[in-house]
Amino acid sequence: MSARFKVSRRDFLRTAGVGAGALVFGSYLTPSLQAQGLIGNLIHGFPVEGVPVVKLMFDGDVVIIAHRAEMGQGIRSSLAAVLADEMEADWKRVTLKQADADGEKYAVAFPQEVTEEHQLPFPYEEIPRTRKPKVQYLVPPEGSQFTDSSRSMTAYFAVMRLYGAGIRLAMTRAAAKKWGVKPEECRAEQHRVYGPNGQSTDYRWLLLGAKKEKPTYEEISNALKKPEDWRYIGKGKEKMPFYDAADMVRGKTVYGADVQLPGMLTAMIERCPVANGALVSYDDAPALAIRGVRRVVPVYPPGVRGGGVGRAFAPHAGVAVIADNTWAALQGRRALRSTIQWDFGPHVTYDSEAYRKELEEATSKPGMTVRKLQDVDGPFAQAGGGDTVEASYYVPHLAQAPMETPVAVALFRDGRMEVWAPTQSPDVTQFSVGAVALGVDCALYDLECQERARKAATVHVTMLGGGFGRKSKPDYVVEAAMLAKQMPGVPIRVQWTREDDIKFSYYNAASNQYLKATLGADKLPTAILQRSALTSFFGTLFPSTSTPGASAPEIAANAKARKDFLGGGVYPYASGIERAQGLEDMPYEVPNILLENCEAKNHIRVGWMRSVANIYHAFAINSFADEMAIAAGRDAKDYLLDLIGKDRILDEKTMTSQLVERYRNNELPLAGIDVPVISGGKVNQVVAGYPPDTSRLRAVVEAVARESGWDQKVRQYKNVKGRGLGIAAHRSFLSYVAIVADVSLNEQNELTVNEIWSTIHCGLAVNRDRVEAQMEGGILYGLSYALLGEITVKKGAVVENNFDDYPVLRIHQTPKINIHIIDSQDPPTGVGEPPTPVVAPALANAIVAAGGPRIREIPFRKSGIAV
Amino acid sequence: MPVFQLHVNGSVRTVNVDGNMPLLWVLRDELGLTGTKFGCGVAQCGACTVHLNGKPIRSCVTDVGVAALAEITTIEGLGGSHPCQLMWIEGAVPQCGFCQPGQIMAAVPLVEMCRQQRVAPTDEQIDDAMRGNICRCGTYPRIREAIKKAAGVTS
Fold first, then answer.
1. Residue-wise DSSP of A536-599
2. Global pTM?
């Protein structure tokens, strides 16, 4: 504290009458920008209405609000460092604060009021204008904190830069005024502004002057650093900071279960093992006899059907044991277990083995056409037997299994719900637990109900001990809220065991993929057919005929809502989101293409796991490419490049002429959007487009082949028994990844993954170290499920329990990984998920090259491959 | 209810709990030492690893009655500047960070042995020390490198 203030900071702030203890820069900066009607020129534009992502304290220190959930991707540091870089903030004076749920605050709007006649193109035309009429969002409130689909950096890179540059510009101008010099003669560096005559001053002494500055968007845009001046971003001169690492290695980071509130009790829940089951009866006496157990309460009253198919984020039926501590709750739960009678309901017949046959049956006949180019029937009919390649690939349900099991704390008082939770979806959590507080049931399409519910809830987001999609679904937070509602004033923590996590996930879809191709005289395919059957997560989100207890009007209303929601399609088919993840955007250049989606009914909660539908689509198409290459007698890499074909962009025109419905492209536009800017009419801002670009797919294949020494190793391994290389490439979440796997297989079919090479094109790699970390992690996540992952269901209940029977990859099974990032200055695209789906097919292809069997099923251990 | 005197991180703490309560829950719920994590409850994942008399054990399957006979060290008791902690930061090892206290506690004895004997850890030694600890984020390659650096001896 400076000697100039003879009071403590706290006292000063109090006398200054600043409640929050900070000058809120966001609230001054943005209205000025908004008045200009301006927008970011890279991708998503500029935040509206005082998005308070920055607070400058009176001592000049900076608080940056992390509004996206942190689950290991490093986004807290990355976004803050982007801002600090442009702001020229001294990182030692930066503190991060995790934001509560407040979707509207972090939304990003288009610059001007969008009237009916000024309709924006897809996908923005579909964004519901629920919160504020007439505002059209680039990032809508519903999505501003939804940390999913590898979108944080794509959505907020430009925004954070503009914020930082705006503050730096304001500081520089304030200093110039103070010194009576021109702003152009001043420069800012590390929290200080330097003048032309040796003057310099700390940002802290410029706060009030800077507050009066109102730089326009154009001025800020012109003040953005050039890439060569970046400190942290991209290939900046300094290592990008990693804010949370120091606390993490000292056990100080607060995850969901580490929240401690006075008087808090811990609950464990014994759940109905079958989706949509109901409680019949239970006896609380044995549990209450355990010391420390306070209460035994049902999650829903007996007879009420719990969560499952079509019930979105509603928890399964269950009975909770609420106790003084976790151990007492666990013991109470064990005592309770055998006293419970369940009404399992119709999904008790769900059986993985039988379901696989259903999926195979579904893909054995025509499904719903989703993309069609010319006609495959002619070439199929003409082809001789030797020219036809045909194969079927199966992927079972998979559980995300983050290291931190689901956990949440809820406190109900004065009609409001306050929760602390590791959640990827603060906004969905907010309206879900708010609905519990209000005692209402908001349908997924009932936006007014959700808006009321949001107002009844506060959501504090903790650090996530891994998410991988599991924590996008707030059922575990809803459980805590439902119990807290029954004990007003008492904070209740719901702690899941690992068995709970494995048995009550929102599983990745089980899927069967059928592919057929005919090869022409040049041994390249003249026609290709792909049929995809997958249990859609939309079957979990919206009630359907597979939702026991749903009324006919409810089903009809939801069917309509589903169709209108993000290309939701109809039950029991896939949604537009799933179709767009590796099916509709099948990238090979083939003259005749037919892509179909086949039906798959839901009998268990289905959600999404890291890379989602790309898991089965990338496995199938890349394995099939290798099968075609073998049939053609060609090198796998050369053949893959031929399949990718000539460089082309799958633009709006190309795609819409083939697709039956609109291609969703991770909910970002295929082509750039021109946005007329009011100010001066000079700047014609463009929102970038992110079309599938086969030149990028080619680039990653060529790069990974070069990095791995593909050509030379392929020649060498021809003479080495049991050694082989496999290659695969896939675009997902707007990024392109290619992988080469080098494996050894001995006589006993024991597999060793010797080394993996990977290349990613993700636009500008903003935080290179975290891109590499996500590549390492994403690849190992893919390797884990490829070799080991399988959830089995019998009599409606998940068979697996814990890491002993749902094994995951361990350190001794981890190969050496080489990572190569394609240099690019293009807008950044996804990183967390794209590496994952490419591993399994590269590995399967390598196993064949090593003389092993063709594996068409995950996990590989089921095909006799030992690891 | 039995009273146990626990020697935790150099100080004596008294708890009044069942003798079969796992040490994990005593540390977390009774002593507020939340750096030790629950991951599986059945000694499969290593998130709950602490030291008893300097040896890594799984606190989720260790009764407090047994732990009371030994010196208990948790991640909070490692001092904050242990070579493992410093090299974990240096190598930007953590992603979500949840498993890392357990990973570090599992690595410490190997690292300290190597530092004392001035030998570099082999990959096999690292595999043996660390195969009981799961990381779903996939930080294994960086854990391996951090252990080698923390051992302070280059092979």
1. -THHHHS--TTSTT--HHHHHHHHHHHHHSTT---TTS--HHHHTTTTTT-----SEEEEEEE-
2. 0.94
